[in-house]
Specification:
mainly alpha, two-stranded antiparallel sheet, 8% strand, globular
């Protein structure tokens, strides 16, 4: 299992309506992070504040500028990393999810021993999700 290489696949794949935020997160954004809250509508996140339409990508996914970004190898960062939704903090949760989503953290050796890979994944994700998730 490799560290996240910031490929952005998960953010791109799920940001078009595949994510949700808790009511607590939405309330916190409303009070303390209005720049995030403006992309919330009727409890749904990443809604265009001008058209009220679901955005096709997260408005806070930022491409990292640099000469090493070759086409198809772009690197991304999260503009609201500390305030990102729980769905984002918990991802990825399983090896099968990583395989399905073509996560670049997973390595061939992880496929041979998924139990070991899950232990490594849990260790890598320990700072962003509660134990046992």
């Amino acid at each position: 299992m490799k560290d996240c290489n910031q490929c952005g696949k998960c953010c791109i794949k799920y940001a078009d309506g595949g994510l949700s935020a808790t009511s607590e997160e939405i309330k916190m954004w409303e009070i303390f992070r209005p720049h995030i809250y403006k992309y919330v509508s009727d409890g749904k996140i990443w809604i265009d504040p001008d058209t009220d339409e679901q955005l096709s990508h997260c408005p806070f996914l930022e491409k990292i500028p640099g000469k090493n970004n070759t086409p198809g190898q772009e690197k991304y960062t999260c503009g609201i990393y500390r305030d990102r939704p729980e769905d984002c903090r918990l991802y990825p949760t399983s090896i099968s999810e990583m395989i399905r989503d073509e996560c670049e953290m997973i390595e061939a050796i992880d496929l041979k021993d998924p139990k070991r890979a899950k232990i490594k994944l849990d260790a890598l994700m320990s700072d962003s999700r509660p134990p046992g998730v």
